[in-house]
Structure formats: C-alpha cells, structure tokens
C-alpha cells in the first residue's frame, strides 16, 4: 500500500490515549477497514523521517499475535500509523463493559502475549525502545505508552488476541509531543528504580495486566489514598486518571522536562497517589491472584512467577511459554470466537 491521508475516510473515533487518538477508517481505493493512530510529535523533519524508517520494520512483523501494519505517513504535525482494525477493541474496554474476564480467556491472553513478545524478540530483536528518564523525588521515572497493558491487547470477533503499540521506534518514543502523559502503572520495580529496560519488564507488565483482567479491576487501586504527598508535584485530576509532572520551579527537573512526559495513574474506584503507588510497587509484595482458591493453582503460580520483584528471578516470555498454565491454554478447547459473540 501507498497510504495517503486523502484516501482515508474517518468512520468512527475508537479511543484516545495519552500519545494521540485512534480512528476507524476506510481506505477508499481498497475498501479496506483500518485503525489509524494519530500521534502528535514534537520533532524536526529529519527526525520525523527517521521515525518513518524505524516504523518500516513493522512491515516485516507477521505473527498471529501481533497487529498487522499497513503503513505510516506524516501529516503535519502528526504521524499516522495505519494498522489492522480489531472490532472488539482492547481488553480494558471489554472488562469495563462485561466485568471480570473468565480465567480461561485470561489464559489465552497470557499465551498470545507471550507468543507475541517471543516473536518480536526472537525474530526482530525488538525489546521496547530506549529510555526516558526524569529524576523525580526519590525515583527515576521512565515512561512510555508502549507497555504491555490491557489497552494494548486487542481482540476481534474471530477470537484472535493481538498486541499493539510495542515500541519499534525509539525516535518516535522520544518525540511524542510534550503534552504526552504516559500511564506508568504497569511499570516493573526495576524500571521505577531506573534500571535498563529488558524483556523481563514486559513479563511484569503482563502479570499486572492478567490480574486486572481476572479481577475486573486494576490491582493497585484499593489502597487508602489519604496520606498522599503530592506537594512537590503539580497535578491534574480527571475521572479515572491523575496526571502529574514536576513543578516548573524545580530547575533540575525542568531541564529534563522535555524528555519527561509526566506520569499518570489509572484505576477504577479509589486512587493512590503516584508516589504511594511507585513506592508500593518497589517496597511491598507484588499483587497476586486472590482470594486464594478462586482461580486455578496453575494460574496463581503463573502470575506469581511474572511478578517476581527481582528481574533475575523472573523468567523470559520464551521460558514462560512452557509453564503448565500456558500449555493448558494452548490445548484448551475454550471457544474464543463463541465467547466474542456474547458481547
Ligand atoms: P496510552 O496512550 O496510555 O497507551 P491507550 O493504549 O488507551 O493508552 P491508544 O493507543 O491511543 O491509547 O488507543 C486508544 C484506544 O483505541 C485503545 O484503548 C483501543 O480501545 C483503541 N484501539 C487502538 N488500536 C486499535 C485497533 N487496531 N483496533 C481497534 N481499536 C483500537
Ligand atoms: Mg495503546
């Protein structure tokens, strides 16, 4: 395809993230339905071209667990990324509509994400992006919107589960406009503490995501929000997210501001302050699939092994594909297509 904006007809707004928005569009010449992601970027023309080159690698990504890529183009001041449209949307939208997801489906999600990550890593050596640091209080925050999380796991009426928004382009991640506010709640303890990103960080994010789907709520959203200390941060509050960024007056932080992009928290019900949450992830025991006995032992064990706080103890996606719960999911006769037809 040689995609041009003029050939795309907007059909429907699918959702808005922090980096941009996604629309359902029709490619008029081919009558193909696609999802068009529009990302506002803050970069020189040379960097924009570099981003397009980096995105090109997605033409070579062919896996049943990865969203297909149709092409990307510049449409000043945005970059548009056209991809396969998934008619049932993302898993966060699904559980918010229908409630906690059946653990058999969650097992299939684990399998799909592990297969997708293994494919990206083994075939293309993609492990998400470069780092973006901002010293903020006691923490170094690294932010991006390409984490494994329910909003980046998509589902369709054929019962397919695919991941999207993995960070193929380091330049794109660095150029997402200053207004960008990344969700960081799926971030592993080692990344909160500034360690280099590895494929093990994705495993942590998968573990958190699976608990969220199985419980029907974000696992960190229950704690007491009372004694939060946000005095060094300026914040904005919207119904289900808090966005904070360092106050402008802090010189050191300000210097790094362009690269920082801020932090946001999401969660249904009660919300924790960002510092509490980050502190919690680093210092407290990892969340688990609870209450005990509600879910199969193998599922509990799998989630536990995704959420080892020490990344060295955590397994890689490839090793986790051999976990009994994932092997069960692989041979399970649970009919995802039939399940998809129920909502
Ligand atoms: P963040 O910006 O923090 O990563 P996000 O993933 O929700 O959050 P976007 O990636 O912009 O933000 O996506 C917005 C929404 O659009 C998603 O939640 C999803 O429901 C929908 N969406 C994205 N890609 C597709 C697609 N290929 N097919 C169908 N729906 C999609
Ligand atoms: Mg996304």
From TrEMBL:
GO biological process terms held by the UniProt record: signal transduction
UniProt GO MF annotations: ATP binding; protein serine/threonine kinase activity; protein serine/threonine/tyrosine kinase activity
Keyword hit for Kinase: yes
Annotated ATP binding sites: 37
Keyword Kinase: yes
Signal sequence bounds: none
Residue ranges constituting the Protein kinase domain according to the UniProt record: 8-326
Keyword vocabulary terms for this entry: ATP-binding, Kinase, Nucleotide-binding, Serine/threonine-protein kinase, Transferase
Family as reported in the entry's similarity comment: Belongs to the protein kinase superfamily. STE Ser/Thr protein kinase family. MAP kinase kinase subfamily.
Protein name per the record: Protein kinase domain-containing protein
Organism: Scleroderma citrinum Foug A
């Amino acid at each position: 395809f040689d995609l041009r904006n003029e050939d795309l007809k907007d059909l429907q707004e699918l959702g808005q993230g922090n980096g941009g928005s996604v629309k359902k569009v029709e490619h008029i010449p081919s009558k193909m339905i696609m999802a068009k992601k529009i990302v506002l970027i803050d970069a020189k023309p040379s960097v924009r071209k570099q981003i397009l080159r980096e995105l090109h690698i997605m033409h070579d990504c062919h896996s049943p667990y990865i969203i297909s890529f149709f092409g990307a183009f510049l449409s000043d001041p945005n970059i548009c990324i056209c991809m396969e449209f998934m008619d049932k949307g993302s898993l966060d939208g699904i559980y918010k509509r229908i409630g906690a997801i059946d653990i058999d489906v969650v097992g299939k999600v684990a399998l799909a994400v592990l297969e997708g990550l293994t494919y990206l890593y083994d075939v293309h050596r993609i492990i998400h992006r470069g780092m973006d640091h901002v010293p903020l209080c006691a923490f170094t925050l690294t932010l991006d919107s390409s984490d494994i999380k329910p909003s980046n796991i998509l589902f369709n009426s054929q019962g397919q589960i695919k991941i999207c928004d993995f960070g193929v382009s380091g330049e794109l991640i660095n150029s997402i406009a200053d207004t960008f506010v990344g969700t960081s709640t799926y971030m592993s303890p080692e990344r909160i503490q500034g360690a280099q990103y590895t494929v093990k960080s994705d495993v942590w994010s998968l573990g958190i995501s699976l608990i969220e789907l199985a419980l029907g709520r974000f696992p960190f959203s229950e704690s007491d929000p009372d004694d939060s200390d946000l005095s060094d941060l300026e914040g904005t509050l919207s119904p289900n997210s808090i966005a904070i960024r360092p106050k402008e007056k802090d010189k050191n932080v300000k210097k790094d501001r362009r690269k920082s992009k801020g932090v946001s928290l999401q969660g249904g019900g009660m919300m924790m302050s960002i510092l509490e949450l980050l502190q919690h992830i680093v210092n407290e025991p990892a969340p688990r699939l609870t209450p005990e006995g509600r879910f199969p032992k193998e599922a509990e064990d799998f989630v536990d092994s995704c959420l080892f706080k020490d990344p060295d103890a955590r397994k890689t996606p490839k090793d986790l594909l051999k976990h009994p719960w994932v092997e069960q999911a692989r041979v399970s006769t649970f009919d995802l297509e039939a399940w998809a037809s129920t909502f």
